[in-house]
Design brief:
The complex is a heterodimer of chains A (313) and B (533). Chain A is mainly alpha-helical. In chain B, the strands form five sheets. In chain B, strands 1, 8, 9, 10, 11, 12, 13, 16 and 17 form a nine-stranded mixed beta sheet that branches. In chain B, strands 4-5-7-6 form a four-stranded antiparallel beta sheet, covered by helices on one side. A two-stranded antiparallel ribbon of chain B has the order 2-3. In chain B, helix 13 runs parallel beside helix 15. Chain B is globular. Chain B starts with a helix and ends with a strand. The chains are: A mainly alpha (313), B alpha+beta (533). At the A-B interface, helix 2, helix 3, helix 5, helix 7 and helix 8 of A face helix 1, strand 10, helix 6 and helix 12 of B.
């Protein structure tokens, strides 16, 4: 197992290099100029060019590429072209929000989605099953920002249970949790829909296996059959789905972040895109790649926990 | 059955736990006395160095932090009413080239950076004029040098005599006119971008990326201790959540949507004061005259007669928009908007079709590709214009781009028509220079926003604009600007359409302390007398 982990971590290096190179090229292909974005639409071409020179954007591309690669090798993400702040500072401030939102969404999705999926499979073609499938289809179809606004309208405006934006200071645990409920619910309900459908589909398949019939025939309690024999053998596709969606949620929850006025990695990337802040974009894409690699590694390692027959070589 | 019941109970317990977190809602900051909560529409800050702040909502924050030697009376942008700011009074030499400003004594910078002296003013103006340290250096092209006569006296030497509006425009509380602390800039370097130090009623306190900027009152402000203790500017790009937070009372002030239906919706809900203020952004449709058939005056005139300003304004909202007829926006010094002989190009589709036929296009013409930004206040009117022009036989492919890409592409000559909205300093010079001088033609080394290539494809108005620049006699300056505008309306490189004003929204208990008619900060201006009742 340790050799496998080491091997996977070593593979990260060429993966990150590929991501960085791709990001470096991609941000420069898109029309738009960070100098013009910073100076405003009244700026003369002379002023824009002057700023480009000061930002080092007039240097040959290979020089810019080499300089940034050298910074990355030192563990330095560089500085924002717009604010001149170290990018690592901004990432460190927003990453906890992204992690807690992603984790909450996944936790909710698993805690609600798995039992509902099992129930739906066990009670196949019942009223509950039909209702659950309709609701989960709605969950898959409703755009994230729309669901977020609906939650605000109901729980914040109508019921007044939660604030729309919350206080400035959010360092206390209760305040952090309080501010997390609605956005977490917004993402979690979407995850629940995905997880529920996958669980139902997998469980239905496993329920047809002989060992399940044998377990029931032996007189085992239904809960024990479901937990020890059915769910255990259904988890691998569910774990895969959760891993894939975790990757998506890290950068893809930007609409939820915008509606709930939460900082996050996705919002940072989008903001940098609008301002054509090349330095931030390149660095964030590398950070994102690291996060994705880490999540994928965790997902792969969890297969061995879920299914003892899995071996790592 | 028992298994499913157990599963159901576990799931229900989890949901109940979530609901318990709703109990005991923590207090929101709008409930805290004397903290003004403001919702801005941008996702994050740009820069708070006033000489580099070009984003509209950085300007809004900078306005509360800094002062200029002179200022517009708060709530106006009338160049004829400029009043003392950090300077108590000023004198002009006989030759009009030396302007002496007498500073107020005892004005304190924020965060104990000491008293304002002439050294700070010299430093600030030199910084504003330096293209390496300022985005507004072109505005100081007539500045020769700045001299510290004594601790509280500054003398500004000009290269050429200039009119009072032109000189005071450099020094007013806007863009390069803001006075910064020399000591703070020298100590902080690049950190000053996000740690500004000024003399305004509010001092920078903290910044949380993507969340807020907080200002706190400057207890030693020279006009008196502000009534409000703190201002929190929240970055909330989603209109709906901004609006919901406002309705719920978590925000006192928000930037609104500049459309009538939104204003009407908010009015219906009550508990709101809506201020529709200037300066407006004038929308002008520029014709790329390097592309046929836009090099033909009759085609340009046909387009002008084919656009109905009334229809566009009815859609946007007559309370928020009004028609514009002159190349320099209404209300700007030198605009001929109200002159009786200003051609109006009123909607006349029959005349438009006749002009097209005369130009050799009796069955209409296709212009190719027209680019527009995805930003609604420009995209939606452009879609209306597209339909209006289709009625008279003019068609094109309308491509929608994200805002930054659009700005880049229109400067690369990639669009046959450019619908551009702009508010500039309220004199004729900036608008005429940036949109109609040949030096500003896009694609040239000195390019700004002359999308029509006016002055290159056909002779332009450079001589009028250059004559007005630095003309010390205001009447002669106004005459030159007037002549430039008349010629522009004859040559028609662009057609002015309408002005869109700002929509600002506040709670009734926010007492600004003045009546807002226009705002140089492009947002509410908060002063020491602003209070939350």
């Amino acid at each position: 197992m340790k050799r496998y982990i080491l091997y996977r971590l070593l593979l990260v290096i060429p993966s990150l290099w590929a991501v960085f190179t791709f990001a470096f090229v991609l941000v420069r292909i898109v029309p738009g100029d960070p100098a013009l974005a910073m100076l405003g639409d009244h700026a003369s071409q002379e002023a824009v060019q002057e700023l480009r020179i000061r930002m080092g954007l007039d240097r040959p591309l290979w020089q810019q590429y080499g300089a940034f690669l050298a910074e990355l090798a030192r563990g330095d993400l560089g500085r924002s072209l717009v604010t001149k702040r170290p990018i690592i500072t901004d990432v460190a401030q927003v990453l906890p929000y992204t992690v807690e939102l992603t984790f909450t969404g996944i936790l909710l999705g698993v805690v609600l989605g798995v039992p509902l999926g099992v129930l739906s499979a066990v009670k196949r073609n019942s009223a509950f099953d039909h209702m659950a499938r309709i609701v989960s289809l709605a969950g898959l179809s409703v755009p994230a920002f729309y669901l977020a606004i609906l939650l605000l309208l109901v729980f914040s405006v109508s019921l007044g249970w939660f604030p729309v934006i919350g206080p400035v200071s959010d360092t206390g645990l209760k305040v952090r949790l309080h501010n997390l409920v609605l956005p977490g619910l917004s993402l979690g309900l979407m995850m629940t829909a995905y997880v529920m459908r996958m669980t139902r589909s997998t469980v239905l398949q496993v329920l047809t296996h002989d060992y399940v019939r044998s377990a029931r025939a032996k007189g085992l309690a239904e809960m024990r059959v479901l937990r020890r024999h059915v769910l255990t053998n259904s988890l691998i596709p569910i774990v895969t789905l959760v891993g894939l969606h975790a990757n998506y949620l890290v950068g893809g929850s930007v609409m939820t972040e915008i509606v709930f006025n939460r900082p996050g990695l996705g919002k940072l990337i989008v903001g940098a895109m609008f301002q054509r802040d090349y330095a931030v974009l390149q660095s964030l894409l590398v950070v994102y790649a690291v996060v994705v690699v880490f999540i994928n590694l965790l997902t792969d390692l969890s297969y061995g926990i879920v299914d003892p027959r899995v071996r790592y070589e | 059955m028992r298994a499913s019941a157990r599963l159901t109970r576990w799931t229900g317990a989890f949901l109940a736990m979530l609901l318990m977190l709703a109990v005991g809602s923590p207090p929101t900051d709008a409930q805290t006395d004397q903290t003004l909560e403001v919702g801005l529409s941008l996702p994050d800050i740009g820069r708070l160095d006033p000489h580099r702040s070009s984003l509209t909502q950085d300007v809004a924050i900078v306005d509360a932090i800094f002062n200029g030697l002179v200022q517009f009376p708060v709530g106006t942008i009338d160049l004829n009413r400029i009043e003392p700011g950090l300077a108590e009074r000023w004198e002009v030499s006989k030759d009009g080239k030396a302007w002496t400003f007498y500073l107020r004594k005892g004005v304190q910078f924020h965060h104990n950076y000491g008293e304002l002296t002439s050294d700070d003013v010299v430093f600030s103006l030199e910084k504003a004029a330096d293209p390496k340290r300022s985005a507004f250096s072109p505005n100081y092209r007539n500045l020769d040098r700045v001299e510290a006569v004594d601790r509280h006296t500054v003398r500004i030497h000009l290269k050429n005599p200039a009119s009072q509006p032109d000189v005071l425009a450099m020094l007013v509380n806007y863009h390069g006119g803001h006075i910064v602390s020399k000591k703070a800039v020298s100590e902080l370097g690049d950190k000053f971008l996000l740690n500004p130090v000024g003399t305004g009623p509010f001092a920078f306190k903290e910044y949380a990326p993507q969340r807020y900027v907080m200002l706190e009152r400057h207890n030693r402000h020279f006009r008196g201790r502000p009534k409000i203790a703190r201002i929190v500017y929240r970055y909330m790009p989603d209109l709906k959540s901004r609006q919901l937070a406002f309705e719920r009372g978590e925000l006192h002030v928000i930037e609104g949507l500049r459309e009538q239906w939104w204003v009407d919706e908010l009015k219906r809900k009550g508990d709101v004061v809506i201020d529709v203020v200037g300066p407006g952004e004038m929308r002008t449709l520029h014709f790329n005259m390097t592309r046929k058939p836009l090099d033909d005056l009759r085609v340009r005139q046909a387009i002008a007669y084919g656009i109905s300003r009334r229809e566009i304004i009815e859609f946007v909202g007559p309370a928020i928009a009004y028609p514009a007829y002159a190349p320099v926006p209404p209300g700007y010094l030198g605009s001929i908007h109200d002159a009786s002989d200003t051609p109006r190009f009123s909607y006349d589709p029959s005349r438009a079709k006749r002009l097209l036929a005369e130009a050799g296009y009796p069955n209409g013409v296709d212009l190719g590709v027209v680019l527009i930004t995805s930003v609604d206040p420009l995209r939606r009117p452009m879609e209306m214009i597209t339909e209006q022009l289709r009625r008279i036989g003019i068609t094109y492919t309308l491509q929608v781009l994200d805002h930054t890409s659009w700005h880049a592409r229109i400067r690369l000559n990639a669009s046959a028509l450019v619908l551009f909205g702009a508010a500039r300093f309220p004199t004729g010079d900036q608008y005429l220079s940036q949109f109609y001088h040949s030096r500003s033609i896009v694609g040239s080394p000195t390019a700004v926003t002359n999308f029509s290539h006016y002055g290159s494809v056909i002779p332009g108005v450079d001589h009028f604009i250059d004559a007005a620049k630095d003309e010390p006699d205001t009447q002669k300056q106004l005459k030159a600007w007037g002549q430039a505008q008349q010629k522009i309306l004859v040559d028609l490189p662009a057609i002015p359409l309408y002005v869109l004003r700002l929509v600002l929204v506040r709670k009734p208990n926010v007492d600004l302390g003045y009546k807002p008619e226009a705002t140089v900060a492009l947002f509410y201006q908060f002063r020491e007398f602003t209070a939350i009742k």
